[in-house]
Amino acid sequence: MDLVHAIYEPAGSGPHPTLVALHGWGASALDLLGLAPHLAGGRLLTLCPQGPLSVALGADAAGFGWFPLSGVGPPAGEDALAAAVERVRGFLAAAAERYPIDPARLALLGFSQGGVLAYRLALAEPSRFAALIALSSWLPPPLAAAVAAHADHGKLPVLVQHGTADEIIAVARARQSVETLRALGIPVTYGEYAMGHEVTGESLVALSRWLDERLP
């Protein structure tokens, strides 16, 4: 497996319902791992791959990203996003060989930049995933246009959560993303919370309940 990753393994031999969680810009494989014990009673095999790009955060700190940013908007080019998608596809293929994943109960989650990547991957292959979750993220219009032709979108349940006080990605972007998804015929559950660019206890409880229903 060519991506560094962290893993949470539930009890039992599996195959397990599985969540693949893609972190945001400047974070790491450990950033979302702490959510795993609190999701669906801790019964989800959770894989957290780490983006391949190094991000300088200061003199003594570094993080990682999936593709170069252009401000807080879409990636600098489709090629950069496509390359990131291929890295995650390769990771998923290798993970399926290595870990006891139930392919019929595989969900994809992305936070912030990871959400853009999750949108691109899951909407292009909606039959591959049992659920898609976008946290504090957005669906860039060019990306939506690129995946609009897929006829089986309606089978992919999507959860979008966003903070009304998000200082990185304005909540208006999430609202527009939800409108775009619904216009494509995609079933969306949308939640807004009094929070910033983060996951809080309230949003986590709603996320856990939603996943528990879709990954039985």
CATH class: Alpha Beta
For the termini, the CA-CA separation is 28 Å
Provide mean pLDDT, rounded: 92
* Biggest sheet record: 7 strands, mixed
- How many helices in DSSP terms? 5
- Shape type: globular
Uncertain segments are none
**DSSP E strands, number:** 9
State which percent range the strand residues make up: 25-35%
Q: What Rg, in angstroms, do the CA atoms define?
A: 16 Å
CATH level-four homologous superfamily name: Alpha/Beta hydrolase fold, catalytic domain
What is the CATH architecture annotation? 3-Layer(aba) Sandwich
Please give the domain count: 1
Structural class estimated from helices and strands: alpha/beta
Note down, in words, how this protein is organized.
The chain is α/β, with parallel strands linked by helices and 216 residues long. 31% of the residues lie in helices and 25% in strands. It contains five helices and nine strands; from the N terminus they run E-E-E-E-E-H-E-H-E-H-E-H-E-H. It has helices at residues 78-98, 113-124, 141-147, 171-183, 201-214, and strands at 5-8, 16-22, 45-49, 53-58, 61-65, 101-111, 131-135, 158-163, 188-193. Strands 1-3-2-6-7-8-9 form a seven-stranded mixed beta sheet, with helices on both faces. The chain is globular and about 45 Å long. The mean pLDDT is 92.
